[in-house]
């Protein structure tokens, strides 16, 4: 729309750029949208140079810059407006070179404009518009889901849940600070195996969210220790109401069997005690324990990270693997959620503690602690 703003002015020339021609020609992309708008008008399409010619003599051209050297394709152009779509995909040199193509005749009414749209993902774009930004006379206008009243926001959020945490945070929140990896875990540390060892102590650690709509996940992670190897067998994860969550916990305990200890993270205060007591009552006949978290999340996760780096943490192949690795590799500086990390740290803590004190085997019966 901005590119069409001055097509009534004789000699006006605008250029719209994507990184590749394929990006330009996608359904619903720039050329497709322009055709929908301009085909019923007096403007004429020139296929050879991908240009709309208007009755005034003004032009709107679609181009691409697949490499740094492609910028010289526009060496002889005289333009009043250049528009970059998905600026983060372009090299900085190509972007800056196009400024040399912006010019107008003295006394002309048409302004000189360079405008871009993009999602986060480029350090040079961040530096230019967010860091230097206003001090250098560059305007940055953030845009989020709430700015588009016609978008089905909830459905869009659900589709973004399929993405890795970094890309999701970039697209959902317009986050320019998110990084590809956190500081604690690396993706390649986790080996995927076909099955867990048959023998060894097992624990299912639950980190429970309180509401369905709060954004956090309830997570129940099952881990087994065999010698110095810790294998994560399964992760149950969902955004459930308390009633739905309790039903999942009970069903999971039945599937795991009585040999798997159930551990529930106990929140501070009397409410946490009540939740654990309710779990003990609901899971009568199963070994159940409430554990209070001590220390911050990073401190609790550090011992698990050390074992993962040494190659001692394995994952049994399953549909939960990608989401788990995504979350841990983003923890703590990148990820939106840390529920799976908390559950893994909790399960690891239980298994290492009990290996140091093999006689404990402790669990809660009502409010009494015994073995």
Characterise the protein shown here.
The protein has 371 residues and is of the alpha/beta class. It has 3 domains: 139 residues, Rossmann fold (3-Layer(aba) Sandwich); 33 residues, no CATH class; 184 residues, Nucleotidyltransferase, domain 5 (2-Layer Sandwich). 32% of the residues lie in helices and 21% in strands. The protein is built from 11 helices and 15 strands. The strands form 3 sheets. The chain has a 7-stranded mixed β-sheet, with helices on both faces. A 6-stranded mixed β-sheet has the order 2-3-4-1-5-6. A hairpin with a 4-residue loop joins strand 2 and strand 3. The longest helix has 18 residues.
């Amino acid at each position: 729309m901005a590119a069409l703003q001055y097509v009534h002015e004789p000699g006006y020339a605008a250029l719209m750029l994507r990184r590749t021609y394929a990006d330009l020609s996608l359904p619903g992309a720039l050329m497709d949208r322009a055709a929908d708008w301009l085909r019923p008008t007096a403007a004429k399409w020139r296929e050879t140079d991908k240009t709309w010619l208007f009755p005034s003599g003004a032009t709107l051209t679609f181009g691409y810059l697949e490499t740094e050297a492609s910028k010289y394709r526009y060496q002889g152009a005289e333009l009043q407006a250049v528009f970059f779509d998905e600026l983060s995909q372009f090299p900085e040199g190509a972007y800056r070179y196009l400024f040399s193509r912006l010019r107008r005749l003295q006394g002309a009414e048409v302004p000189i404009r360079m405008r871009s749209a993009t999602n986060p993902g480029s350090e040079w774009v961040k530096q230019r518009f967010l860091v230097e930004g206003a001090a250098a006379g560059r305007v940055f206008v953030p845009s989020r889901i709430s700015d588009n009243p016609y978008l089905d926001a909830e459905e869009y959020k659900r589709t973004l849940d399929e993405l890795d945490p970094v890309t999701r945070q970039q697209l959902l929140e317009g986050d320019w600070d998110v990084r590809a990896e956190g500081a604690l875990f690396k993706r390649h540390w986790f080996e995927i195996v076909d099955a867990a060892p048959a023998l060894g102590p097992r624990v299912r650690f639950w980190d429970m969210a309180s509401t369905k709509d709060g954004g956090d996940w309830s997570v129940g992670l099952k881990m087994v220790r065999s010698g110095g190897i810790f294998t994560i067998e399964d992760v149950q994860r969902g955004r459930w109401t308390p009633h739905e969550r309790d039903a999942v916990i009970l069903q999971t305990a039945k599937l795991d069997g009585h040999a798997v200890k159930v551990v529930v993270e106990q929140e501070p205060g009397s409410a946490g005690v009540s939740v654990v007591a309710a779990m003990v009552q609901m899971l009568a006949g199963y070994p159940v324990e409430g554990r209070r978290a001590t220390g911050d999340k990073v401190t609790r996760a550090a011992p698990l990270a050390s074992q993962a780096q040494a190659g001692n943490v394995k994952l049994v192949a399953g549909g939960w693997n990608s989401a788990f690795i995504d979350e841990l590799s983003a923890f703590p500086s990148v990820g939106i959620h840390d529920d799976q990390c908390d559950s893994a740290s909790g399960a690891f803590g239980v298994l290492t503690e009990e290996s140091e004190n093999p006689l404990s085997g402790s669990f809660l019966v009502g409010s009494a602690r015994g073995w």
